[in-house]
Recover the amino acids of this structure.
């Protein structure tokens, strides 16, 4: 289908550009690891709250690093004037959105995996944990973050103080995602499975689906010019 | 603080905020009205001038 | 002035007077006529304005923003954008009032300023979302571009709020011991006072919306007049 191959062309272009410089993913990973590090110093070791706080750290790291990726999605284009070039192509706006979304999704997910690995080492997570389910959780969270993130990156693209603004816009909207993800990850990291998580994984799925749909519909209006 | 103190604080805050906003609106309104009137005069002048020149 | 705008001015003045009267009535009801709550004392009277503020914030204010955002994207008429902006401003004010009065009346009664219960927490998230909306509007310049971007944000934000509430509510049922209840029994006179305050605040919202959107409409007229002036000047070769 032309739609998907066009979107994939955008993904390839962005990823190749990224691989050449690698600046985005490196800063993402470093940011994520640093957040885990800094938060660790903020919590008293061995207290009751350590367990709850830990899930929070994981997702805070994930969010902060993810916003970096997403913030850059339209930046290079705006600077090189490529966005207008992209818009001149007779493609559905949805193709641009999908392409940027997939690119971000890959960056966010990969960074998330690295952060998770670091986290398991640093917090001595047991080996018997449901890794596949953790990865699935990470995928769901990455989709949620990338969906709204890509949309708002386009909203904030032409605007001053873009990165700070993006964080301000996205974080409140991501609250349900953080709650659901933190809940599921606490369970998983303690050796349980997603089946024990009740409605929470479904909340994540619903969240992803709803905002994916809304973003697709609404993206056209954002890049109109 | 006694309970009544809290109550006064609460009500005071509510009406202070609302009052400030109302003041802000009316201030803006007055300034804008003045601007509109001024602009209307200027537009009329410029339009008549144009007509006279033609 | 044309008769249409004269009528509008009279209607607005009438609205303001009626609102003022209703608020006065509500104040009297809340502070004097409603009975004193046995366990909580007079501080409970704050509730008569805390709850309607929360209602305005969580209900009409941002729903109107949502509706007008869709209307703008569908039609492109700037008037919808202006009214959406006004409604969001007023919504933020009422949300702020809710968030400030909540701790003020919670502390003397329950001993804590804050609990992470669903309605309160959702209100906090709501505050962040719509302050973000206003921030976007202040930074995005003016005109159709800002209108489009705000409309997108207004739509996404509003859809998110019920999901936020749901997730916090689910979270709460899992961690009940961290949270306290917020209820108390109300007798019929209290209910009356509450209803009157609710009506007063709803009317207040409408009045503020009309007033604020009115100034924005005038501002738009200013811009239009300035543009016209520039065009006339250019044709006339300057003054």
């Amino acid at each position: 289908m032309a739609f998907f191959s066009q979107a994939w062309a955008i993904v390839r272009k962005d990823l190749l550009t990224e691989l050449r410089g690698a600046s985005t993913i490196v800063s993402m990973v470093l940011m994520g690891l640093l957040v885990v590090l800094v938060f660790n110093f903020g919590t008293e070791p061995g207290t009751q709250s350590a367990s709850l706080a830990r899930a929070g750290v994981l997702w805070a790291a994930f969010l902060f690093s993810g916003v970096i990726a997403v913030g850059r999605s339209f930046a290079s284009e705006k600077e090189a004037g490529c966005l207008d070039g992209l818009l001149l192509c007779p493609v559905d706006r949805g193709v641009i959105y999908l392409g940027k979304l997939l690119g971000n999704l890959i960056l966010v997910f990969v960074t998330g995996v690295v952060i998770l690995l670091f986290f398991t080492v640093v917090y001595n997570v047991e080996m018997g944990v449901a890794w596949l389910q953790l990865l699935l959780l990470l995928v769901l969270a990455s989709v949620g973050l990338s969906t709204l993130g890509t949309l708002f990156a386009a909203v904030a693209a032409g605007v001053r103080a873009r990165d700070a603004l993006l964080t301000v816009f996205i974080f409140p909207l991501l609250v349900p995602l953080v709650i659901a993800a933190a809940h599921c990850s606490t369970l998983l990291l303690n050796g349980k499975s997603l089946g024990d998580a009740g409605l929470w994984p479904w909340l994540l799925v619903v969240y992803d689906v709803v905002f994916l749909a809304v973003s697709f519909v609404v993206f056209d209006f954002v890049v109109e010019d | 603080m006694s309970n009544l103190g809290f109550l006064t604080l609460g009500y005071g805050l509510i009406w202070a905020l609302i009052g400030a906003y109302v003041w802000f609106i009316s201030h803006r309104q007055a300034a804008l009205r003045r601007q509109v009137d001024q602009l209307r005069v200027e537009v009329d002048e410029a339009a008549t001038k144009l007509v006279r020149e033609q | 002035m044309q008769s249409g705008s004269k009528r509008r001015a009279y209607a607005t003045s009438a609205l303001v007077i009626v609102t003022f009267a209703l608020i006065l009535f509500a104040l009297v009801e809340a502070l004097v006529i409603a009975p004193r709550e046995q366990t909580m004392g007079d501080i409970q009277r704050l509730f008569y304005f805390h709850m309607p503020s929360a209602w305005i914030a969580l209900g009409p204010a941002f729903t109107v923003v949502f509706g007008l955002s869709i209307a703008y994207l569908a039609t492109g008429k700037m008037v919808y954008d202006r009214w959406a902006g006004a409604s969001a401003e007023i919504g933020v004010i009422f949300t702020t009032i809710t968030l400030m009065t909540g701790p003020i009346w919670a502390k003397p009664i329950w001993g804590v300023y804050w609990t992470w219960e669903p309605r309160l927490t959702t209100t906090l998230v709501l505050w962040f979302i719509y302050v973000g909306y206003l921030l976007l509007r202040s930074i995005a310049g003016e005109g159709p571009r800002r209108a489009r971007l705000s409309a997108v944000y207004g739509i996404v934000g509003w859809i998110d709020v019920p999901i936020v509430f749901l997730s916090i509510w689910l979270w709460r049922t899992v961690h009940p011991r961290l949270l306290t209840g917020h209820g108390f029994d109300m007798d019929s006179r209290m209910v009356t006072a509450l209803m009157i305050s609710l009506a007063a605040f709803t009317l207040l919202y409408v009045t503020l919306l009309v007033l604020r959107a009115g100034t924005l409409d005038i501002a738009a007229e200013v811009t239009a007049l300035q543009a016209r002036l520039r065009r006339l000047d250019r044709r006339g070769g300057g003054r």
